[in-house]
Batch of 2 targets.
Target 1
Amino acid sequence: MPKVFRVLLWTSISLLGAFALATIALHRGEQINAMWLVVAAVATYAVGYRFYSSFIAAKLLAIDPLRATPAERLDNGRDFVPTNKWVVFGHHFAAIAGPGPLVGPVLAAQFGYLPGTLWIIAGAVLGGCIQDFVILLFSVRRDGKSMTEMAKTEIGKVGGFVSYLAVISIIIILLGAVALVVVNALKSSPWGTFTIAMTMPIAVLMGLYLRRIRPGKVLEASVLGFVLVLAAIIGGQWVSQSASWAAVFTLTGATLAVLLIIYGFTASVLPVWLLLAPRDYLSTFVKLGTIALLAIGIVVLRPSLHMPPLTRFIDGSGPVFAGTVFPFAFITIACGAVSGFHSLISSGTTPKLIRREPETRMVGYGGMLAESMVAVMAMIAASVLQPGVYFAVNSPAGIVGQAPETAAATISAWGFPVTAAEMASLAHAVGEQTLFNRTGGAPAFAVGMAHIFSNSLGGQAMMALWYHFAIMFEALFILTVLDAGTRVGRFMLQDALGHVWKPLGRTSWYPSILFTSGLMVAAWGYFLWQGVKDPLGGINSLWPLFGICNQLLATVALCVATTIIVKMGRARYVLVTLIPLCWLVAVTFTASYHKVLNPNPRIGFLAHARQLASAGADARLIFNDRLDAAVAGVLVVLVAVVLIESTLEWARVLSGRKAAEVRETPFVMTQLALEEQR
Amino acid sequence: MSQIACGAGALARETLDAILRASTRSFTVLVAALREIFDESAYARFLDRQRATSSPIAYAEFLRESEIAKVRRPRCC
């Protein structure tokens, strides 16, 4: 394309993006169309990818198309396999996209759609994408080393130890938080509970089909599993209408929590092929399909947003979770903007599949842009709801009251009109007994998604099916994270405990499997139980804690990245990683300070513990608050140590007191580039 | 006139061909991506490496070999 056209094209895209951003930021008083959010995001992503990521690739990372990657040098057809870039992109996206970008934006919508949307777009382009891209490239240049290994070699033993601790903590708290989302979505919902219960025999059936009937035909088995899941959704309606069956599947939060804990343990000790692998395939299949469907639905239907750009709750008094827009909007939305967890994936399987160095840009930076788009869609799904409905679904009974009339009156008094009759009619339309106090984000997302789809496909008559399809999709997603996370955590524990007593490190020794699985499940199960018993709904304390952990991990990842950049002699471009690092330090340290020491009992764990103690509450609840405060406090101190260690290392290298040693694998000329040229 | 019509026809055919080629390529890549995500390609590579044909025994062996890698693969939040 001639240069003049390219200039014109990119100028138009930039202007369109700027206009869309200005529209969503400055529009007040009237509803805007969801497409403004989509256009703002897509245009910003396009400009960010075209210019910023190519600047980073050329100037900061000096990506070398002639350097052989580990996939080429160590190709063994198993772990290291040179793979087509689009295939790696799909693989990477399937691994990074989880329930986080769906739940976080829905919760953050309590501030209005504006803060969350701006953070998703800017956070991804200037922070999350950079983290994923840079860590991926550095891992590629180190034979696919993991983030914790890189932290150890580049920052020192403390860096490695803290990364390990941050990873295991984030896994435990993440599993507790997402399990709570499932419990809140399924409690008193016979339809949803039946559907999810059925996914387990379906997964076992898929496992047997794959192992005995059609070995290796995973796509075929996934389609079969999906059809059976759809049948289970339809069957769920019948179950919910049958008095005897509905009673069996109408479960309390506590019962569901116990069942999830048993499930997590069982999935961790059973053979992978029987439950974990087929569930993972089924969940990925449903996930990719539903995300695509949601994207098409939003673009085709172009719904209007009923949520205002900003709500009164930016002052910190929000019912969904307490805390001011800064820093809480920025830790509530982690995946979708910046997620430290991604650094584990960028330094896990993905670097071992990359065929050529330049492809890291599309996979790392581009993959995160795609995930960010999912978060924008979740924000749209939450914002198409009437604000009164949104707050009725997402507010815990401890804030708005248990009785529908009281809750509706409280929410209406905030300026978001809603009536008990309106909520009852909506609950009836989606096939639920009630939609009040369904905290956790998943039910609100499901109502939003059902609202979008029922406007075109099947009308109001299909609303209940769409709602339960969305609930199934989220719960399936989360249960996959739960069983995969428990296994990953179990292996990490076995690795660590193997240093204490060798047999515990043997991953195939059954007593060790049972012991470490039990430890892992007990750890996240405790947080889940705490959330279920929390009078404020649990999400108020668990989700911010998870956000803090996730972004503290991102802080460690960016410390590693900045250290390597300084050692590469590219300090003049260090702001690329230093700016998001400083921002994350400001966000996570402020949020941790508030969560631990804020005198408001709805925000600060210790203030809440004091309030409970003075009211003579259960000692367990008081202990839980103190435990949460200790977890946040200890992690912040550890990450502060990594930060200081890193800063000292930068100072030593920049002042010439220490030689800038880059621990990359030596350069080997690629043969793939030459083959492609021929 | 007929030359113009002929030229336009050729252009339309070329465009159609290009679209068809691009669609085929996209579909091939999509299928390849799905096969990689769902471990079908990994199984095919395993069979290749072992010079074996697909069977319940071969698949069980593949699952054993890939089990550690699979369970250590984190799934993001």
Target 2
Amino acid sequence: MEIRVKNEEFKEIKKHRREIEARFRDMEGLERTLKELRLRVLLEQKERLEKRLEELEKEYLELIEFERNAIADKEFLMAFRKKLGEENRELTKMLGEGK
Amino acid sequence: MKIVVRPEMGWGRVTFKVPDETFEEIERLAEEYRFRLDEVLRVILLHGYTEGAEGDIEALDGEIAELERKLYRLEGDWSPLRFRAYYLAMDNQNLAIQLSGMLAENRRLRERLGLPFERNPEVEEKIHYYLSFEEDSVKESGPEGGDPGRLEEHGE
């Protein structure tokens, strides 16, 4: 099996050849390290998801609040339109009678 | 099994002779901890080993799956809510347009009749808000980003 590495990495590997050979004999050390790396990956993934969920929940609540206000505003504006329409009709009538 | 390491550029190589059972163990560990074989070899060749850490991978997998489920559900609820909010805002914008015309008419009629015009700050504030309402503030906020902050400007 062949593996290609960057030139600086190659120099490091040549320099630490004996240590690497020892690592190939230490499968417990490898398992311990892989477990730690996997745990780190999962913890980072969990943190990202928690952050995203928190943001989304906040935005969702804001949108619910916006909808609630917009419903109340719609009712308020429709009631005002009705009142103003009646008043304008009445004023137009008064203006017609005055002529 | 021979593991031959070569530089990307230039000449030279370093060979490691690894017993087959050791290589099989490396492959097994790569599969168990969900890393590619080349990633595991890079750990051996370049990074070295760590002291290890306490933690339950299976429990974390479960927590991540639960968070993904919650996100999926929330994103599913988001679209219909955004759709409703957008069309409500558009309804209110149409009402605001009608009301500004009607208020202008009211002012004109009152002037002609010599009556004072009564301002209604609450109505004026809402008209102003919906007339200057930007479509994007509801349409584009959501799971993909946008500017939900603008929604906060809206007070009762």
